[in-house]
Structures are given as structure tokens and as C-alpha cells.
Amino acid sequence: MRVRNLILLVVLGLVASFLAINWSAVTATAKFTLLLTSFEAPIGLVMLALIVVLVAAFGAYLILTQGVILLDARRHAKELQTQRSLADRAEGSRVAEVRELLRDELARLDARLTEHEERVRTELRDGVNSLAATIGEIDDRLRGPGESR
User: Fold this and answer.
1) What is the DSSP string of 66-114?
2) Is the pLDDT reported for residue 144 higher than 80?
3) What 8-state DSSP symbol labels residue 22?
4) Is the pTM of this model over 0.90?
């Protein structure tokens, strides 16, 4: 049992015992006047009835307020879930967009790399051919004009 409930039960027990001990004073009659009329009734019971009505009114107000708060909380939870879904979809589309951009960039880089490789091979082949020609020319010069291979 919660402490709050226990305190409430203790207070209600104290009030009930107070009423039981002072029952003769509670049931003593008194004259009440309401603007146009007057009546006699036990003063304690009238006060007790007024307190019960007041507690009932505050209880109804509390229940109404809690209901409104619960409805607002549910509405906010639904809105939050909707916004979370929208954010997840947006994030998913951004991830797909980034993936596509990366794929395109990798394809461009692969094409550039292939082009550069081909250029390097061509330059290397040209360099090897030029070097072979130069070596051949040097070899011819070293052998002299009349010698053949």
C-alpha cells in the first residue's frame, strides 16, 4: 500500500473517531437561514454534508483534469510517433540518396582511374620504345658505320 493511501486512511479514521466521540454535538440542532427561508437541522450533519459535497466537487474536477491530461498525452504521443515516422522515412531517403551519390562518385573515380592507367601504360610503352630506340642508336654509333649486327 502506498504511503499516501495509508495517510489518507489514517486521516479518515481520525475524522470518523472524532465524529463518533462528539456525536451528541454533531446532532445538536441549530437554526439556519437561507435568504428567504429558515430551517432547523443538526449543525454537524449540515457541515458534514457541505464537506462531502465540496470533496465530491473537487474529486470530479480532479477526474476531469486527469482525463484531459491523459487525452493530451495520448494526442502528443501519436503526434510524436507520426513525427518519428516522418523523420525515419526522411533519414532513409537521405541514406539512399547518399548511397546513390557514393555509387555515382565511385563509378566516376573508377572511370578516371582506368583512364589514368591507360595513359600511364601508353606513356610507359612510349618511354620503353623511345629508350629502346635510343639504346639501338647508341649501339649503332658504338659499332661504327660499317658494322652490322
Assistant:
1) HHHHHHHHHHHHHHHHHHHHHHHHHHHHHHHHHHHHHHHHHHHHHHHHH
2) no
3) T
4) no
